[in-house]
Write a structure and sequence with these properties.
Elements: H1 2-17, E1 32-44, E2 50-60, E3 65-75, E4 81-102, E5 105-118, E6 124-133, E7 146-149, E8 162-167, E9 177-178, H2 188-193
Antiparallel strand pairs: 1-2, 1-8, 2-3, 3-4, 4-5, 5-6, 6-7, 8-9
Amino acid sequence: MRRVAIFLGAMLVASIFLPSRLAPPVAASATAYSFNLIRPNTAENSLGRTIRVTGSGNFDSGASSVVASGSFTTFFANGARIHSGTWQATAFTSFHPFGGPNPGTQGGFLKITVTLFPDGAVPITGLPMTVTCRVNAPAGFTEEEGTTVADFRDKPAEILSSTWITRRDAKSERIPSLRKTRARNDNDFAEAATHRSGSLGEGVPAPRRP
């Protein structure tokens, strides 16, 4: 009897500390996603100037967390460059998922807070950024495909912006969501910008003069 008790006790300890081959693997969080700006995404402010952003990141709407970064460039209305630099996400705000045909192709509306780091200038903190992927967008949702930053909210029709969002547990091939417009390459940006006029809004300051 004593040997049986010792044997059963050893088996119990083994069952606790040794991994079971029959146990299923832990599934990835259903609220964990990745996003990628497929090509430079552009947006205008009310005064006619434009920001162009690239980047990617991961976020978890359940944990309210985000890790994302990229680059940005601002332009005068005539296409001349104002600022270049990088951006980094500092806080998760919200995410409204639209679902999609598979885990690798998802739609949704993401809101985060970012800091801009203009080359040679003071960082600009606390700016709202939105990333929109219109895959499976519900009826009545009017936001266009692409990315906005601060007061740069108007997405020019002549500039192609595209994003994709995928669930982190996705195993299928990811397909980018595209807003099909007249522009087909980055060089079209300068040509389109020459038709606009205005001044830089509050989102990004004018460059410092030497």
